[in-house]
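Schema walk-through. Below, the input block comes first and the output block second. Nothing else is stored per chain. Lengths vary across the set, and this one has 252 residues.
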Amino acid sequence: MFLQQIVIGCDGIRSPIANWMGFSEPKYAGYSAFRGLGVYPDGQPFAANVNYIYGRGLRAGYVPVSPTKVYWFICYNSPSSPGPKITDPALLRKQAKELVNNWPEELIRLIDLSPDETISKTPLVDRWLWPGLSPPASTGKVVLVGDAWHPMTPNLGQGACCALEDSVILTRKLANAIKSGPAAIEGALRAYGEERWPRVFPLTVRANLVGSLLQWDNQLVCSIRNNIVIPKLVRLGPVLEHTNFECEPLKA
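--- output ---
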């Protein structure tokens, strides 16, 4: 019998553990997001689709997540600074509605139907794990997972997915190492980082670039994007290629 003391940093974007390990602070992407959850007690009216609305330096979307709830978001440009942190739900709701006051009525209604505790505003940030420049995912018996290691903008919907993938891969590595004895633990943590980096670094970069495309504010460029690029050139298969990832089930 032996005891292993392992620290797993899963403490989010502003991780003190990542800071201790020498990682840079996540970088602001130049835009922020309002988010909320519209509640329809008698049943929400939308089909099971993701709905997007594009403007100039502004976009929104909503998608049903249950028979009675619909998630929504609004991303807006604020290049110089995300502005002061706001926690007052009434002010958050007011600001969100002002951004889209001439947009489809169903979006405005979603904001109105969102309980105070579901509405938030956050600056969108990421950290690019440049090879040879960024620290490894582990130091000794301290290791990072999820946003603590690789925060990414939500433009591909892969932040939480990658955190879950991290957890499965790390669990598998540790399970095998524990069977081999204490000396194998640090090697298992290094192997986890080496396996996960080729997955999370390209996704972080790609999410950032997609966000830059969707946040354009030039009128001509936005017109080309909305009328040609998105409806005629973007194909769903290649766009969703990043979702084709198999962790393989954990063994008991």
